[in-house]
Amino acid sequence: MKRFWSYLKYVVRHKWFVLVAGNRIGASYWRLLIHDASKFLPSEWLPYSRTFYKPDGSNQYVESPEFNMAWLMHQHRNKHHWQYWILKMDCGLVEPLPMPTKYIYEMVADWMGAGRAITGKWEVREWYEKNKNEILLSKRTKLMVEFILKEV
């Protein structure tokens, strides 16, 4: 039970910081309120809790096939994840599709909120610079992300 309590505290903290960040950058209030609601579904809640917390509630990170499936489901349920907008063609090519504006703002707020919840700092620009080559975005989406990040 302590594992679940620890995970609940993290999710609530993350959602709070996403709300704060989203308000700073002008994201949709509705998107911020429903942000990551799927994390409360058993198919995500249980694997995430087991991955990030020991039974006594202390931190850990033990990746598993169960977690990988939960993470994939989370990405496909939540349009604010850039992975949702990746088209994998039968020929093997991968193409990032343009994200609607409301999801771009939510994605940036998510990055900001995750950073603050985990490290205690607002360091999204530094995180983006370090990770941008691994994030597949359409040209339009990337330009918009970088515009938003210049404003924070």
Architecture overview:
The protein has 152 residues and is mainly alpha-helical. The protein has helices at 2-25, 29-34, 42-52, 65-77, 101-119, 124-131, 139-151; strands at 86-88, 94-96. It has 7 helices and 2 strands. A two-stranded antiparallel sheet has the order 1-2. Helix 1 packs across helix 5 (101-119) and helix 5 (101-119) crosses helix 7 (139-151). The model has no long low-confidence stretch (mean pLDDT 96).
**Assembly type of the shown chains?**
single chain
Number of helical elements: 7
Shape: globular
Supply Rg. Answer: 16 Å
Estimate the mean pLDDT confidence.
Answer: 96
N- to C-terminal distance:
38 Å
* Binned strand content: under 5%
Order of helices and strands: HHHHEEHHH
Find the structural class using helix and strand composition.
Answer: mainly alpha
The total number of structural domains is: 1
DSSP strand tally? 2
Query: Major sheet: size, sense and barrel closure?
Result: 2 strands, antiparallel
- List low-pLDDT spans: none
User: Could you estimate the helical fraction of the residues in percent?
Assistant: 55-70%
Strand order of the biggest β-sheet:
1-2
